[in-house]
Please model this.
Amino acid sequence: MIIEWDPIEKNQKCKFQSLNGVDTGNSIKNIEVRYMIDSKDYTCRKMDWHINKVADKGATIRVMGGNMKVLVSACITGVNCKYNGKNNVNIRAINFLKDKDVISICPEVLAGMKIPRSCAEIVNGRVVDENGNDVSLEYNKAVAVALSKIQNEEIDLVILQSRSPTCGVNQIYDGSFTGKLIPGMGLFAKALKQRGYNVIDVEEI
Model:
């Protein structure tokens, strides 16, 4: 899905509530859009597509046909690539992705890490496994390989697995391997956000 914004006259507010299966002459079909536009910072609600901030006080909307392209943690779709050899299959996410163009990704697997492998958490900015080994180089490599893989893709939305040292978006484990959570981001999630991708936690769907 491509959203194109054009500035309009200052002090004019643009309000847009929904688009549901319409055809505006641009071959737009079976699109369901639910979002709100504020007067300055334009924010997508319900993850229907990625909307950037727009300057000034208004915008007109031109919607061009095509499916939303979504990058998603592979474990969410049922791939057994977790550290313990299992997955984090999420039926709600799978249903959301049904009419999307999906790119499934697991940075650790792309970097050649074993399945299963030692559990790892972030400790003072370093990635350390449960045996006390500093595995930051391996995880940094995983992020670099994953970023390289998607560099030519026009991605509208990124959905990542919660709490992972690579993919955690809102929270990560605190490094004590006791299950305690703290605010923070995994390495891949952070790198994507820094590059301007629209990144959400799977639990936000």
Observations:
- Residues 136-150 form the longest helix (15 residues).
- The helical segments are 91-96, 107-110, 136-150, 187-194.
- The first strand starts at residue 2 and ends at 6.
- Confidence is low (pLDDT under 50) at residues 1-65.
